Amino acid sequence: MIDGEAVLILADASQINVLNQVGSLIYELSDGQHSVADIASQLAARFDVSYAQAESDTLEFLHGLETQSIMILETR
Fold first, then answer.
1. Contact yes or no for 24/5 (Cβ under 8 A)
2. Which of 10, 22, 59, 65 has the fewest beta carbons under 10 Å from its own?
3. Over residues 54-67, mean pLDDT
4. Phi, psi dihedral angles at 67 (to 5 degrees)
């Protein structure tokens, strides 16, 4: 990470994704230990947005990663 931003390099897809601070935090917390609710709570606190907005943004971001085969989401 550089200045709160992360770069994901996918060798198989010859693809580079640059994540802003919000995306970087979501990606960092997507470790299998934090739920979407946990991540949304941290986003809401850190970036001064409503919990509902943070949850929506988190889900949208995670589904985007899943669509690109960067991450596999599990329902618990």
1. yes
2. 10
3. 93
4. -60, -35
Q: Specify the length of the chain in residues.
A: 76
3-state secondary structure 52-64: HHHHHHHHHHHHH
Angle at 60 between CA 22 and CA 31, to 5 degrees: 60
Which domains can be identified in the chain, with CATH numbers?
A: 6-67 (1.10.10.1150)
With cut-offs at 50, 70 and 90, classify the pLDDT of residue 50. very high
**Phi, psi (5° rounding) for residue 49?**
-125, 165
Q: E strands, 23-74, where?
A: none
Q: Are 23 and 6 in contact (CB under 8 A)?
A: yes
